Amino acid sequence: MRNTSSLFRMVMDGRSCLRRGLSWVAKLKHQKAYNDTKREWNGLIYAKRGDEEFLFSDVKAKPDVKKECVPVAQQADNESRRLWRHVTAALFHDKINIASSAKRWIEQRQRDEVKRRLESKETWASQLFDKNQEAWVYKNSLDHRS
């Protein structure tokens, strides 16, 4: 594979969810459509380049890949799976009221933490992202790897 230094962006048309399938349009940095992709989340993905349509991927034929996550007990208090574990467990057991209460508690705690930081003029120090003008940029992005 050669590096072309082209930027790639996928735009998903969420409205077509109602029609069962979804459409993605892949674009390069010059906003020129490079490839149209039509597919369902769990079926066949077809791509079209020019007038030629071809099978891009058969999702059902691909093996499931187990997620690699640090065990919840080893995660920091603000890491996602540990933070949301009570909500996840309640939803798994169809306890919607408990899940909603746990979600509200998490959100209120986060609001309280922001308020405390503002009052003490403490700035948030992100471990994984840097503030770049108006956007947050991932510190270990592919652009910065050699």
Automatic annotation (TrEMBL):
Name the domain of life: Eukaryota
SUPFAM superfamilies according to UniProt: Oxysterol-binding protein-like
State the protein's name. Uncharacterized protein
Tell me the organism: Ditylenchus dipsaci
